[in-house]
Design goal:
With 322 residues, this protein is of the alpha+beta class. It is 32% helix and 25% strand. It has six helices and 15 strands. Strands 1, 2, 5, 6, 7 and 8 form a six-stranded antiparallel β-sheet that branches. The longest helix is centred in the last third of the chain and has 37 residues, at 218-254.
Length: 322
Amino acid sequence: MRIYSQDQSANGTFWASPITGISSSGSLVLGSLASGFMIAPGIKLAPSKLQGYWSALQAAPDAKTYTLTYTLPVWDGLLPPTTNASAPYAAVISMHLSVSSIDNYLQSIPGTPNSVLALVDVASGNMLGASRANLSVIFPTIYPAIGNPNGLLSGAAAELAARFSTPLNGTYDISRITDRTPQSFTFAYNGDSAYCSTAWITNTDTGLSILLILAVPVSDVLGEMAVTLRETIIFVVLFVAFSLVLGVLASWTMTIPIRRATNFDFSSLNNGLLEHHSVFTEIFHLEDSFSLMLNKFSSAIERNKELVAKSSQGGSYTVQLD
């Protein structure tokens, strides 16, 4: 950006041109004097230009770029923005914004891998700057927004014009957009879709009208989300696996005393130990003995009955127990 000033003397020379910086003491550092006029001296400006105005884009061959110029007239004894429509201006302050400097600034702003941030001169539809190189000016060519070498930017600008501008002979143009409110929408791009957001930088008093366009492919956004999701899944899987391993180790360690306490030797089963010493076998033998004893006792009772009968009839007898 350069700032020039011009007085209204007879020869119309600049009295300070340009301002190149600020010294350590805080005062302005002025460059060499120049000649020429920004506004012809002594004229009365149109009422719409009294408080300053923006000019159309102009080529700056020495700098191999284009500039957007703001001109502010001042009057004797009056501080801007105070004006005196009945008297000629006393001096002019002019500010020039170069497309190359806007490019440099926008390219310093981080974005997604394929997104584009652009400033567009609404009056001409041409680029004022972009976040990617070689989309604004390759001198002497200045690129438009619609039909830009970058397909994403061109598609966003064309979709914006088609949605919100007034058609002329069946065509749409950014300069004919009547709705200057911020917009957000999705449009088809490269077999997929993209997001677009817009904002307007305008000042009806000075004629400033700049459109800001931000276009981002959906794949950029979903790609970042996919990476985040994949990293999250990997983390969860690793965490679960680690938890399982830790749980198994903890269980193994905690059950060692229990396993030792219940470590019984059942090898005697294979050696037939219970065939001879089983409790069930002993009970079976006891049952046989008890049954035999009952049989013998029953036989004795029967014989005793017989003896009692014979004794009642008289005679001798002999009792024999088996």
